[in-house]
Structures are given as C-alpha cells and as structure tokens.
Specification:
The protein contains five helices and ten strands; from the N terminus they run αααββββββββββαα. The protein is of the alpha+beta class and 261 residues long. Helix 1 runs parallel beside helix 4.
C-alpha cells in the first residue's frame, strides 16, 4: 500500500472514531434499568442501552497502559476513541488452578494470552506476539464496575495488525450501532411465546434435576444409615466375642493356677 493510501485510511479510521464517540460514551453511560432490579442485573453483569440488554462489549483501540496490579489481575488501558480511556481486567490463573497443563495451558483466563513475569520483566504475550504500548487490539468482555467506574473483564482479544483490518473493525461497529442498537429491541408475539416455552421447559428441567438430586441424596443417606446399622451390629458381635474370649482366657488362667492333686 502506498503512503497516500496509508494517510487516507488513517484519516478514515479517525473519521469513524469521531463518528462513534457518542456510541463509546454510551458505553461509559450504560445503566442497569429498573430501581428494584438494578442490583440483581449488575450482579449478572447485564446492562441496557435503550432497551437492548447488553452483556458483552467489543472495543477496538490502541493500548495506552499495561499495569501489573497484583498476582490475580492485570489491567490493560485502551483508548476507545471516546475521549476517556477504558480499563480491561485480565484475570490471572493461580498456581493451584494451573496444575494440569492440559486443562489450563495458559496462565490467564483468556485463551492464548499469557503473562510473562520475572525479576525486572513483565510482558503480555498473545499467541507468541508481545502486547505493548501502541498495539491496536480488538477485545470482547463483560461489563462490570470498580469504584464506580465501568470496565471490562476480558474474554477474548486479538491484535489488529493492519490499517485495513482496523477500518473493517470500526466499520462493523458502526453498522452494528446503526442497524441494531439505534432501533428499539422488539419481540414478535411468536418470539415471546417461544421464549415463554423455553423458560417453562428450562424450569421443568431444573425441577427434574432438583428432584433427582434430592432422591439421590435420600438414597445415599439411606445407604449410609444402613451401613451404620450393619457396622453397629458388627461391633456388637465383636464386643460379645471379645468378652467371651476374655472369660475363656480368665478361666484357663485359673485352671493353670490350681495345684495338681
């Protein structure tokens, strides 16, 4: 790609970022809807934009800071184009969580993302590529709040390696906002009925699971009680046998002490 094309694409990316500033600010202003359900929805990491339930957020932007907070968390700070930076929390696996290299090949909760940490060294490696200040990334995460500030808990991350790829990512975000988020979320009667049936089926499944779990617990309890009863009877028989053996041994000892006539 020629230099003029690079400048043109860079300007186009900047145009898209400026056009999407309101959308990014909307992320910082996402709220849980309903006073009575706000705490519950926040616990479920569920927010609303207009009436769209928002659980996952995708952001494209350069890394402006990488902070080693503690052995449990690492924080990426992204410039999301809104005029405010965005914190992205990376959960690090503890040693006890990563004992099996097959089940836990990475030392973070994100696939292919690893923290390289030693004396004087702290780096993030994504599938062998180092993440550094200025690296443009595309992230997906769930919403949460820390000290009143919204941030993401990272679920997926990929490196945006070219300007064309960055333009494509911003264009996808712009189209998604225009075609999906800008229109109120509405369900047809058929969809509502299907959802109600799905909820009822799931409730029945949960009830059956709970019933089977209770029955299994009662069966295990009955088996345990039966085992205790058998053990009790065995202990009684053993004690009786021991008493008889002691009596027999005492009688034999007395017989040996009697003088011979």
């Amino acid at each position: 790609m020629e230099k003029a094309d690079n400048i043109q694409h860079t300007r186009f990316v900047a145009f898209l970022m400026n056009d999407l500033k309101r959308a990014d600010r909307s992320f910082h202003g996402l709220v849980s809807e309903g006073r009575g359900t706000e705490e519950m929805l926040e616990c479920q990491k569920l927010y609303f934009w207009i009436n769209h339930p928002i659980r996952f957020v995708r952001v494209v932007g350069p890394i402006v800071a990488i902070d080693d907070i503690n052995p449990k968390y690492t924080i990426l700070t992204l410039d999301d184009g809104s005029g405010a930076t965005l914190g992205v929390k990376i959960i690090r696996r503890q040693l006890e969580d990563a004992d099996n290299p097959v089940d836990c090949p990475d030392n973070t909760a994100v696939a292919n993302l690893n923290v390289v940490s030693s004396v004087g060294v702290f780096e993030l490696a994504l599938a062998g590529d180092l993440l550094d200040i200025g690296t443009v990334v595309k992230v997906k995460g769930t919403l949460e709040e820390f000290r009143g500030v919204k941030q993401l808990e990272l679920k997926r991350i990929s490196i945006v390696k070219t300007t064309d790829e960055e333009v494509k990512a911003w264009n996808e975000l712009a189209q998604f906002r225009k075609n999906i988020l800008s229109e109120p979320w509405q369900l047809s009667n058929r969809e509502i009925k299907q959802l109600e049936e799905d909820v009822a089926a799931r409730r029945r499944k949960d009830e059956q699971h709970s019933r089977r779990k209770r029955e299994h617990h009662l069966q295990q309890k009955a088996k345990h009680m039966e085992y205790l009863e058998r053990k009790k009877q065995h202990d009684i028989k053993r004690d009786r046998w021991l008493v008889k053996m002691e009596e027999k041994m005492s009688a034999n000892a007395l017989d040996r002490r009697k003088p011979l006539q």
